[in-house]
Each structure stands twice: as structure tokens, then as C-alpha cells.
Amino acid sequence: MITVKDLLNMKVKVGEGTNNFTMSRGSFVYKQEFSYESTLDYVDENTQGNKTKLHFKDPKRNLDHYFIVAEDNGDIEVTYEGDDEAINRYWISFAANSSEHIYGCGETYSKFDLKGENVRIWVAEHQNTNRIGRKLIRELLGKKPKKVLPFNKFESYYAQPTFVSSDKYFVHVYIDNYSEFNFKVLNQTTLYLQDKPHFVVKKADTFEELSSKLSDLLGHQRQLPDWVYDGAILAVQEGCDVIDRKIEEAEKKGIKIAGIWSQDWCGCRRTKFGYQVMWNWRYDKEDQYSNLPEKIKEWNEKGIKFLGYINPFIALEKDIYEEAKAKGYCVKDKDGNDYQVTITTFPAAMVDFTNPDAYEWYKGLIKNNMIGIGLSGWMADFGEYLPVDCVLHSGEDPYEMHNRWPAIWAKLNNEAIAEAGKEGEVFFFTRAGHTETIKYSHLMWNGDQHVDWSLDDGIAAVVPATLSLAMSGYGMAHSDVGGYTTMKKRLARDKELLLRWEEMNAFSPLYRFHEGNQPVMNVQFDADEELYNQLEKFTNTHVRLKGYIKELVDENVNKGTPVMRPLFYHYDEPRAYTESLEYLLGRDILVAPVIDKGATTKTVYLPEDEWVHLY
């Protein structure tokens, strides 16, 4: 437990530095240069009421630095004042319990307990070509297919300067710039900040109370539309005729369908990476979706909603980009040209949300071209790719804006729904996040899992990712049923994996499928009779849980208690604090997904209680 005394005994180092980050497909190389570093000397302290002002001096420059530690009913706030305006790097170290467990910092996939790690707080593409290449080589050679790389090899779509301790306190730092939270020294926590320090420490007697305090600080999430709990949201692409056929077949098999999700509603692009979306945000009336508005009305009459896809990029080949280019709405490079960001195999332009006119224009595309034709939801993809060497309309430093971009993107989507008068009817889900994302995003999804059994990127990564989000204050998340990232025959979804993912995701707030980036290589939900039978079984399970899940969502919205929770949330047992592959759906259901190929039995940790197997 962090106390005022611990913070009054803090050790501080300051410095001057510059970043030289380079981005490739959303993943970063982190290079930093330091031109000055100095460990501050403690001078004295002055206490007035509930505030103590710590006085430090830089022995090299003979300049003063002050930290104000204020306590209010057990909660602590730390702020900073200093004479040296050139300083832009701060290292703050304070005592920690060597046996505590650390969670949060946004969304982490390969580890849930972060004690012993150094965590970067920088939004980035979680998947990168280097890690995928290493995995494929290991699998090709048959070497340690379950091996997990060191933690520092991973980046995250959702990075947040918040951590939670098993000792029932959290620390949140008010910072958008790059930072690192270092827990490597077990009896010490070090915050490395590239902005003036300002952070809070809040404590509670229970994790429910702690989550409530965190939500009150960062924001509460919204209710999901009632219809999302009424069945599966099936992923179907390649046009209205294909959708009609698959709906008819699924209904004959007794499948309850809440919605159809078609990424390619606005057109497709076939690349070496696979079947991708043409990022031109209007329905594809020239080809596969010529009568989409009329078909959406037909599907809605049957109780089936239609969902689409959008992101902050624009396809260079299409008319929406021509309009954006003519109006100067895109992020620029240093030469004044529209910045072209390479995503997978092709470049795209990025809309500059710091330009108020561009922001409203893009919001209008959502209101008119998506909500206006009847879409009831969509994936609001990306948000992590703001280049740090770009030029923004506002003149703001892209290094300072980079982490804020996901929240701005979520805010735009949320405003579009509100301004269209569709709150409670239409929703969106995001993968990228930082501190303020919680205020605006309706639901998270865990991003692009591999269509495999790997611990760091496959089906097993979903649980620690969801639980780390939960402990960061974001209590509603789900994953693509079946995963996404496919690499031809070397990394393709088989029937067993799809079935295991179906049974796991039935116990989540949203039951949404994905075909993957190479649909023809992956087994899909309608491939054979057994798959249909299992889909019916687990869709019915999800639907039967509607009332229970809605109660959990209410609890999350009103109190901040996450829908999917770590076991220690309700069971104070040593094993519960280290368990990262099981979770509680609310208070009463423990879920232990099968994450091993070919498994017919599974050893499950059950906390001390009375348990009944659901089936």
C-alpha cells in the first residue's frame, strides 16, 4: 500500500531529452537521447494542513524543484512546480510492496500481472511483422510453438497511465506524452514521465469500491442497445446476395441472429495480405451492395441489424479522398503534402481531426452514409497510427497528440450517434485507447488475434487482455470469434479453434464473429453440420444469459464494476492473484476456456466456494 510517507520519501531524477521514434505499419522503434540528467537532492519540507511541499534542488544547476503531496480522506494527489523550464524528463521512485501484484496500464496480452516488468505507455499496433515472422519460423521448425517473447517485445493498441495493485490502490498519472511504468525492482515503483508530474493515488477496502473510484475519475461507459444480446452477430462479406443466402441457411438451422456484420459494405480491396476493405465511406452501390439501404430495411423487419466498418483513413483511389484533398482535410507531412501511411500493403491518407472542419465533415460521413442508410453499429478500427513526424492543422506536437488520437476518434463516433438521435439504438466498438477513451467508446474489442492457439497472440491472449482492460477502468470488452490474422496455410483457422472460440465468447457481452483477413483459408461458422449445431448451442447459451449480462452491464455503467473480472476480484486466495487464463463473468459464473489444441480434459482452478458445472 502506498502511503503519504512513501511519497514524502520519493527519489527524483530530472533530465532533458528528445525522442526519435520511427513508425512502420503502426509499430514503433523507440529511440531516445538524453542531453542532461541529474539526481535531485532533498532539501526540506513544509506542511500546511493536508499538504506537504517537498523541496528538492538540482546540484548541477542549483535550481529548485517542488513536489506538493496532498491527502484527502486517504486519497493522495501529487503535483509539481519547478524553476527549470528546460527539464522535460522526470524519474520518480517510491517504495512498493515486493509481494504485491500489478495490473492495468491499458491492455496487455502476454502478461496480466506486470510486477517485474517495465511497461511503455504508448499507443501502437499490437501486431507487428517481426513477431509474426518469428512465430512462423518457430512453427516451421517445430520449435516451442507456445513460447512467449519477452514483455518488451510487445506493444499495445490500448496504453493507459494507470495501474492497480493487489493491495487495493491505484495510481493514475495525468499525462498524454510518452511514459514508462517500471516495476522491475520489486520493492520500488518508478514512473518515467515526459511531462511535468501530476498523479493521484486512491485506495479502497474492496476491488468493487476501487473500480468505482477509478470510473468516477476516468469516466463511466454507456449501455449497449438491447438487441445486441439477442443472438450472434455473424460476419458475412461479398454482398447482399451472400448475406441473404447465409441468413436463410442459418435460420433454417435454428440460429438466433442479432446482426450481420459486413466489413466490406463500402467495397473491397484484394491484397497480398488478404480480402480487405476499400476505405471509401459510402455503400458500394456500384458492385456488391447496390441495394444495401433497401436490404437493411428488410433485414431489420426480420429483427436482424446490419453493422459495418470505418477507420480514420481514406483510400487514395476514391472520391472521398478527392474531396478531403481539395479541402485540405488530411494530416500533412513536413513538405505540406498529404501524409501517406502504409497500413498492410498499401498507403492511405489520414483525416486531421485537429481541423474542426475536417472533424465535422468526417462525423457527417458517419451520420449520413452509415447511420443514414440504417447501420445499427460498426467497428471503429485503428486510432493508433498518428505519425510522430506529421504536421497537424492545429500546430500541436504530434508526439503529444499521438496517445490522445484514439480518444478523439472515439469521441467523433460517439458524437455522430448522439447527434443523429440514435443513442441506445446504435453502437460502435473500438480497439485503440488511452485515458479518455473510456468516456466515449461504447465497447472494446481485443484487436487482431491470430487464428491459432498461441499464448501471446491467439485465443489464449483474449483473457489477460480483457482482464487488464477491466483493471484499467474499461469494463466491457469482447473478441472476434475465431480470431483474425491469417497467413495462408501457415496460419489458418481450423474447425476446433473456431468451436473453442465460440464456446468462450458465449460468455462475453457481445457474440460477434470474424471471417479473418483471408476468409477462404479459414473454417467459417457454416462449414458443416456440426459447426451449425455448436453455433446453435452456444448462441442459445448467450441469449439465455441476456438478463444476467444486462445486469452486469448496468453494474458496469453505474458503478464501474467490470463485466468480466479477474478471480481475485471476489476471492482473496493466492492463486487468484496470478490466474490469467480464467475469468469471472459477473459474480456467479467462472469461465475457464480451453486453449490447447486437441485437449479433451482441462484442469481448472476453482476458488473456495460451492460450484456447479453449467452443462
Radius of gyration: 24 Å
- The helix count comes to 14
Class of secondary structure makeup: alpha+beta
How much beta, percentage-wise? 15-25%
CATH class of the domain at 4-203: Mainly Beta
Q: In the CATH hierarchy, what is the superfamily of the domain at 4-203?
A: glycosyl hydrolase (family 31)
Average pLDDT number: 97
- The CATH topology name of the domain at 4-203 reads Immunoglobulin-like
Beginning-to-end CA distance, first to last residue: 41 Å
**What are the low-pLDDT stretches, counting only 5+ consecutive residues below 50?**
none
Strand arrangement in the largest pleated sheet: 5-6-7-8-16-13-12-10
* Sheet of most strands: 8 strands, antiparallel
In the CATH hierarchy, what is the architecture of the domain at 4-203 at level 2?
Answer: Sandwich
Q: Care to count the β-strands? A: 31
Overall shape: it is globular
Helix amount: 10-25%
